[in-house]
Amino acid sequence: MTTQLPVALVTGASSGIGKETALALVAAGFDVVGTSRDTSRVTPLGGVTFVDLDVASDASVAAAVQEVSERFGRIDVLVNNAGVGSTGAAEETSVAQAQAVFDTNVFGVMRMVTEVLPHMRAQGRGRIINISSVLGFLPQPYMAVYAASKHAIEGYSESLDHEVREYGVRSLLVQPAYTRTGFEANSAKPDTPLHAYEKQRHIADRVMAEAIKDGDAPAVVAKAIVTAATDARPKLRYTAGPVAGRARILRRVAPSGAFDKQIRKMNKLAG
C-alpha cells in the first residue's frame, strides 16, 4: 500500500524510549513502523506496524527496509533508537565485548542509514534521527565503551548531515540524560572483571541505578524526537529533558579543571 501520511521507521520500538516514540509519532500524524528482534513477543501498539529487525545483521536490515518501502511506498523519518548498554572499567572490557556494543550502537546505525538513505534521496526529503546521549559529549567512568559508542554517533551524524543536506535530507541528534528504562538491567557487564576495579565499579553501578531511578520518563525523550521529526527548521542537536540541557551548558562553559572535579565528585571518585 502507498500512504499519503508521512512514514516513520523506529528501531527498537518494543519498549522504553522506542515504544514511547512510536506512540508519540502516531499521535503526531505519522504512519509508524516499529522494529524488534522478535515481533512475536511484542505487545501490539495502536497504530504501529511491527517488523522483525536485527540492526547487527546486514541481511536483516536490508530485508526490513525493503519491506517497509514496498508496503508504504515511502520513508520520511528514520529513528535510530536500538542500542545496548555496557558497564565496567575500560580495562575489564574485552575488545570482543566492545565490538559487540559497537556492532549495535554504531554499525547498526550505519547499516540503517545505508539502506534508508537511497529512498530519502530519491524522494528529495527525509530526516534521520540518531539517539545519542549526554554520554556523547560527557565522559562517564566505568562506562567507557558505551560513551565511546555515543561519541562515535555524534561525529558520524554531524558529518553525515553535511553530506545529505543538498538532497533535502537531514541527520539530527537527540541527546537524552538518564531515562527510566531497563537500560541498567540490560547492560553488558565486564567480561574480564578485575579485583583492582571491583570496589569502584560497584559504587559506579549504584550511582547509575540512582540516576536512572530519578531520571526522565521515556515520554520526555519521545517528545524531543517528535520535535526533531517535525521542526520546520531543524537543529542539529536536541537535548531531551532539563538534566541533559544543563549538562550540555556545563560542558560548554565550565573551566576544564572545574568540570573534571565535578565528574569525579558525581561518580564518587577520589582526588
UniProtKB/TrEMBL annotation:
It holds the Pfam family adh_short. Signal peptide: none annotated. Keywords: Oxidoreductase. InterPro entries: NAD(P)-bd_dom_sf (IPR036291), SDR_fam (IPR002347), SDR_oxidoreductase (IPR051911). Belongs to the short-chain dehydrogenases/reductases (SDR) family. NCBIfam families: PRK06179.1. This is Oxidoreductase. It comes from Streptomyces ureilyticus. The lineage of its organism: Bacteria, Bacillati, Actinomycetota, Actinomycetes, Kitasatosporales.
